[in-house]
Amino acid sequence: MAFSAWRGIAGIIHPTLRPGALEEFIRLLPEGIGVLPLFINIRKGTREEFATVMGAYEEQIALLAEQGCDAIHPNGAPPFMVHGLAGEAEITRAWERKFSTPIFTAGQNHISALRALKVKSIAGASYFPGEINKTFAQYFTDAGFEVKCMEGMDVPFNKAQELSGESVYAHIKKHFLKCGGADAVYMLGSGWRTLHIIKTLEDDLRVPVVHPVPARVWEFQQRLNVHEPRAGYGHLLASLPAMV
Questions:
Q1: What pLDDT is attached to residue 36?
Q2: What's the pLDDT at 3?
Q3: What span, in angstroms and rounded, lies between the C-alpha atoms of 61 and 74?
Q4: Three-state secondary structure call for residue 124
Q5: Phi then psi for 147, rounded to 5 degrees?
Q6: Residues 6+ apart with CB under 8 A from 102
Q7: Counting Cβ atoms within 10 Å, is residue 3 exposed (0-12), middle (13-18) or buried (19+)?
Q8: What pLDDT shows up at residue 103?
Q9: Could you say which residues of the chain have pLDDT below 50?
Q10: Are 214 and 237 spatial neighbours (Cβ–Cβ below 8 Å)?
Q11: What is the pLDDT of residue 177?
Q12: Are 223 and 103 in contact (CB under 8 A)?
């Protein structure tokens, strides 16, 4: 059985059972775009766990493709970034051939958003502590960006949603200035509840911010041929630049 919505259907697979990002995504989408959300249950947020979940993603992609989604977004940047830029592309190409449906990951979405904004250098932030941030930085370096920094916050994986917007703002601003600035701020991960600091960061640092939630709303609009700007959540969603 396939369903329909008058402006198209967005299929999305969330990597955890953490609430918040899905609700934000739906609130920012234009009226008339349907959403079919599915979930996998990443618990630890470790490199080892990320490397084991492609089978779970594929099962959910198959279900969404069967329902006639116009595009499918397996969300969660780290599970794909640990495969590297080329490895991720190989995975998504194979899925698109198998399921005859456009598919884009979080990392691919973020690259597309940065390119649409004509960004050459980024100052990145995540809520993952330690060495995995070097993997994230290498991913964007391989995509052609100058990564001025990729600084994680030291917080348990299941507590990222409890970070205050003020603490995230302070973390990003500190490292943005320390690294000498960049063409854009990049925020990796949908776990934190930080939509409300995007405009403040853009106003204070005078560069665009690419945040995962507005970025996926932007790309679904592009893919569904919808053009409905939304102010207050960053330059990307307010200006809706075309995909490059």
A1: 97
A2: 72
A3: 8
A4: strand
A5: -95, 105
A6: 70, 71, 72, 96, 223
A7: exposed
A8: 98
A9: none
A10: yes
A11: 98
A12: no
pLDDT at 1: 53
DSSP letters along 52-100, please? Answer: T-HHHHHHHHHHHHHTT-SEEEE--HHHHHTTHHHHHHHHHHHHHHHH-
What phi and psi values does residue 71 have, to the nearest 5 degrees?
A: -155, 150
* CA–centroid distance for 149 within its chain: 18
Question: Is residue 102 helix, strand or coil?
Answer: coil
Report CA dihedral (38, 43, 44, 46) to the nearest 10 degrees. -20
d(CA 167, CA 134): 22
Residue with tokens 């994680």: 152
From start to end of 189-238, where are the E strands? Answer: 209-210
> CB neighbours (10 Å) of residue 240?
17
- Strand 9-14 and strand 71-74: pairing? parallel
CB-CB neighbours of 158 under 10 Å: 13
The C-alpha atoms of residue 118 and residue 217 are separated, in whole angstroms, by 19
- Most distant CA pair in the chain, distance: 54
Output helix, strand, coil percentages for the chain, rounded to the nearest 5. 50, 15, 35
